[in-house]
Amino acid sequence: MTTEVQTKTPGQEGQTAVAHREAAEMGHIARVSRQPSFRVSTLLFVLAAALLVTSTFFPYWKMRLNAPQYPQGLYIVVYVDRMEGDIREIDGLNHYIGMKPLEEAAQLERTLAPIAIAVMALFIVGVAFIHSKWFAVLAIPVMLFPVIFLLDMFVWLYYYGHSLDPRAPLSSSIQPFTPPVLGTGTVGQFSTTATLQVGWYMALAAAILTAIGLHYRRAARLAAERQAQGTDNG
């Protein structure tokens, strides 16, 4: 009676190793998905994406220009993709100090903003439902977006206040200036008041929810790893 010894070829051993790794990975994903903190993080990510998209329908920033001939004030209301308000009247006043028309500001940003926000929302949804810790990198743009908006506003306000036409009627009486991104300021005989609006706060809430979601997602992974170690030790 003879006993045959079956040996595996290198290719079969490689396939077996791959199968074991895939099984271990699927087991880890299942353990992570069962964690309560994973479900919390998924909900937070989805809410963040919804808030970010909804914010595009609301204004992000508003400035009031107080002028003697306009006792009710003049307003600029900024959305991510457009400007509204008393644009023509304010341009008429700014013409005397040599400031460029407002509609020329941030044209590229206003064109790309709706697309960029939609892409960021998709990134967050991907982080919510794709089981890979490396996808957390995709959440960074959402968390930075409110700050980027304010920085972009500051750059344009600085550019407009420091690019006055020297041929304008009142250019000699106005020194280069930067209108405030937030708070009050003075330009000649005019005063300005700038405030953040509901759209920006919605984007900020989306950023905060994303950061909290990342915390809970990490907690879910750590809990799954501890659970796996306990099973192995047992």
Provide the descriptors you would attach to this structure in a database record.
234 residues; alpha+beta; 6 helices
Quick gist of this model?
The chain is of the alpha+beta class and 234 residues long. The protein has helices at residues 10-33, 36-55, 87-95, 107-129, 140-161, 198-233; strands at 61-67, 70-78, 83-85, 183-187, 190-196. Helix 2 runs antiparallel to helix 4 (107-129), helix 2 runs antiparallel to helix 6 (198-233) and helix 5 (140-161) runs antiparallel to helix 6.
Topology:
Layout lengths: L9 H24 L2 H20 L5 E7 L2 E9 L4 E3 L1 H9 L11 H23 L10 H22 L21 E5 L2 E7 L1 H36 L1
Antiparallel strand pairs: 1-2, 1-5, 2-3, 4-5
Helix pairs in contact: 1-6, 2-4, 2-6, 5-6
Overall mean pLDDT score?
87
Number of strands: 5
User: Secondary-structure element sequence?
Assistant: HHEEEHHHEEH
| Strand order in the sheet with the most strands | 3-2-1-5-4
Radius of gyration: 28 Å
Q: Which word captures the global form?
A: elongated
Indicate the percent of residues in helices: 55-70%
Number of helical runs? 6
Domain count: the total is 1
Low-confidence stretches: none
Relative strand content: 5-15%
Structural class: alpha+beta
- Main sheet record: 5 strands, antiparallel
What can you tell me about this protein's structure?
It contains six helices and five strands; from the N terminus they run H-H-E-E-E-H-H-H-E-E-H. It has one domain. Strand 1 (61-67) and strand 2 form a beta hairpin. The protein has 234 residues and is α+β, with helices and mostly antiparallel strands. It has helices at residues 10-33, 36-55, 87-95, 107-129, 140-161, 198-233, and strands at 61-67, 70-78, 83-85, 183-187, 190-196. The chain has a five-stranded antiparallel β-sheet with strand order 3-2-1-5-4. The mean pLDDT is 87. Helix 1 (10-33) packs across helix 6 (198-233), helix 2 (36-55) packs antiparallel against helix 6 (198-233) and helix 5 packs antiparallel against helix 6. The two termini are 41 Å apart.
